[in-house]
Design goal:
The chain is α/β, with parallel strands linked by helices. The chain has two domains: 2-222 and 428-438, 3-Deoxy-D-manno-octulosonic-acid transferase, N-terminal domain (Rossmann fold), CATH 3.40.50; 230-426, 3-Layer(aba) Sandwich (Rossmann fold). The protein is built from 19 helices and 14 strands. The chain has helices at residues 2-29, 34-39, 46-54, 67-83, 96-107, 128-133, 147-155, 169-177, 179-186, 197-205, 230-242, 261-272, 291-299, 333-338, 358-362, 377-386, 399-407, 409-422, 429-438, and strands spanning 58-63, 87-93, 113-117, 137-141, 159-165, 191-194, 213-215, 251-257, 280-285, 304-307, 323-326, 342-345, 367-369, 390-391. The protein has a seven-stranded parallel sheet with strand order 3-2-1-4-5-6-7, sandwiched between helices. A seven-stranded parallel sheet has the order 10-11-9-8-12-13-14. Helix 4 (67-83) packs parallel to helix 5 and helix 4 packs across helix 19. The longest helix is centred in the N-terminal third of the chain and has 28 residues, at 2-29. It is globular.
Length: 443
C-alpha cells in the first residue's frame, strides 16, 4: 500500500494541473461557482458547518459522483433513515448537476441530510470531511475509490462500504493492468454489495476479501421507489400540450445522447416520419452544456431544435414542421420517458459503454439501443433474454423495429411489460443494501 500511495501522490498533483483548464471550463459550463471549488479544498461556510453540527451524532458519509449516482443515493438514503431514526447523512457529490439534484433531495430531509462537494484527494487535504463531520461509515456509490481518502478513513476506524458495485469485463481488464496499485486499495474495503453474481469474482480478483462481497442486486434497477413523480410527469405533459402535441401523438425519445448521436438518430426519425407523419421527437443529451452545439448540428439537417428552457416563450410549437424538443434541463429524464412511445438509449451507437436503460424499462416503455452497451452487459443480457428490449447493430437497423413498434400498440405493451418483469430480479435491492449497511461488524 505504501508504494502504491507514494506513486499515486507523486503523479496526482501533475495530473490535477494538466486537467485544471478543462475542469474549470466544465465547472463554468455546468453552472458551478468558485465557492464550490473552494469547498472541495475544505473551505466551508458557517452555515454549512452549522448544518453538519446539527446532524444526529451517528452519521454516514455517502459519496455519489454525479446525477446517476445521486439517483441511487436518493433511493437508498430514505431506506436508511427509515430503519435508523438516529442516523444523519453527509452526502457529497462532484458535479454541479449532481449537487443540484442532491440539494433538492436534502431539502426534503432537513436535519438529516447535508450536501457538500467532495474533497480533492490530495494528502492531508482530502480527509477534511472526516474531521469536520466525524462519520462512522464511508459509503461509496458504485466505484469511486480514492486512495488517500480510503486510507485516512481506515486509519480513523471507519467502516468502508461500496454499494451498487458493478464492474464490466472491460473495466476489470483495465484495472488488472494496474493490479499492483489497485489491489491494496480495494483490499481495504469492508463491505462490497454487487449488482450481479458475475461481479463477485471480478471484485475478488481486485483484492477484495470474497467473504465481504455480497450480491444485493441493483438499487437503480429496483422497481421500489423508481416511479417518476406524477406531478412532474403532468407538468411535462403540459409542456407538450403547449407545443401543440395531442395526447395520443407518438413520441420518440432519444435518451442520454452523446456527441454525434443526435444528428445520426434524428436522421432515423426523419425517415420514420415518411410512415408516421405525426411522430414527435424529444432529445435529452447526457450533458446539457452541449445544447447550443446540438441546436446548430440539427439546424444543418433542416430541423428547428426548441430548447426546453424556452418552452414557455410565445410562439413555442412542436406541432408539424421539423421541430424537435431539446431538453436542456436536468433531473427530468425519468419523467420524459414516461411520456415517450419508444425510447432509444444513447452512447450505444457512436461511443462505448452505453447509458442506463433501466428507468425507461421501469416505465414500461419499449427500449432500443445500439451495439455498445458494455457498461450494462448483465442488464442487457437479462432484458434481451426476457424479450424486454431490442438491440440493433447500427442506427440504420433501428428503422425496422421502430417502425413495427410505432404501428403496433400490442407489441409495444408486450415489450414494455417483459422488460419490467425482467427487472423484478432486482426487487428489494435498496432494502437489502440498507440492511447490510446498518448491520454491525463485517456483515
Amino acid at each position: 500500500m505504501r508504494l502504491s500511495l507514494l506513486l499515486y501522490n507523486l503523479l496526482l498533483p501533475v495530473a490535477l494541473l494538466l486537467m485544471l483548464p478543462s475542469a474549470l471550463a466544465k465547472l463554468r459550463r455546468r453552472g458551478g461557482r468558485w465557492q464550490d471549488l473552494a469547498q472541495r479544498f475544505g473551505r466551508l461556510s458557517p452555515a454549512q458547518r452549522a448544518a453538519l453540527d446539527a446532524l444526529p451524532a451517528r452519521r454516514f458519509w455517502m459519496h455519489a459522483v454525479s446525477v446517476g449516482e445521486v439517483g441511487i443515493a436518493t433511493k437508498l438514503i430514505p431506506l436508511l433513515l427509515e430503519r435508523d431514526t438516529g442516523l444523519g447523512i453527509m452526502l457529497t457529490t462532484t458535479t454541479p448537476t449532481g449537487h443540484a439534484l442532491a440539494s433538492d433531495f436534502a431539502a426534503r430531509h432537513p436535519g438529516r441530510v447535508v450536501v457538500l462537494y467532495s474533497p480533492v484527494d490530495l494528502p492531508w487535504l482530502g480527509s477534511w470531511p472526516l474531521r469536520v463531520a466525524g462519520p462512522g461509515q464511508l459509503v461509496l456509490i458504485e466505484a469511486e475509490l480514492w486512495p488517500n481518502l480510503v486510507r485516512s478513513a481506515k486509519r480513523r476506524g471507519l467502516r468502508l462500504s461500496l454499494v451498487n458495485a458493478r464492474l464490466s469485463a472491460r473495466s476489470e481488464r483495465r484495472f488488472q493492468r494496474f493490479g499492483f496499485f489497485i489491489r491494496p486499495v480495494f483490499g481495504l474495503l469492508d463491505l462490497v454489495l454487487v449488482q450481479e453474481e458475475t461481479d463477485r469474482g471480478r471484485f475478488a480478483a481486485l483484492g477484495v476479501d470474497p467473504a465481504r462481497i455480497h450480491r444485493s442486486g441493483s438499487i437503480k434497477f429496483d422497481p421500489a421507489g423508481a416511479a417518476a413523480d406524477p406531478a412532474q410527469v403532468e407538468a411535462l405533459a403540459g409542456v407538450l400540450r403547449c407545443g401543440g402535441l395531442r395526447e395520443d401523438q407518438p413520441v420518440l425519445l432519444l435518451a442520454s445522447t452523446h456527441p454525434g448521436e443526435e444528428v445520426l438518430l434524428a436522421g432515423v426519425w426523419q425517415r420514420l416520419r415518411l410512415h408516421h407523419a405525426d411522430l414527435a421527437l424529444i432529445v435529452v443529451p447526457r450533458h446539457v452544456e452541449r445544447a447550443d452545439a446540438i441546436v446548430r448540428e440539427l439546424g444543418e439537417l433542416g430541423l428547428t431544435a426548441v430548447k426546453r428552457s424556452g418552452a414557455d416563450t410565445p410562439g413555442f410549437t412542436l406541432h408539424g414542421g421539423e421541430s424537435v424538443l431539446l431538453v436542456d434541463s436536468t433531473g427530468e429524464l425519468r419523467a420524459w420517458q414516461c411520456l415517450a412511445t419508444a425510447v432509444v438509449v444513447g452512447k450505444s451507437f457512436l461511443a462505448t459503454g452505453g447509458q442506463n436503460p433501466a428507468e425507461a424499462v421501469m416505465a414500461e416503455r419499449p427500449v432500443l439501443f445500439g451495439p455498445h452497451m458494455e457498461n450494462f452487459e448483465a442488464l442487457v443480457e437479462l432484458l434481451l433474454r426476457a424479450g424486454g428490449a431490442v438491440q440493433v447493430p447500427d442506427a440504420k437497423a433501428l428503422e425496422s423495429p421502430l417502425n413495427g413498434l410505432l404501428a403496433d400498440s400490442v407489441l409495444r405493451a408486450r415489450l414494455g411489460a417483459s422488460g419490467r418483469t425482467a427487472l423484478q430480479a432486482h426487487a428489494g435491492a435498496g432494502g437489502t443494501s440498507a440492511d447490510f449497511l446498518l448491520r454491525p461488524g463485517d456483515a
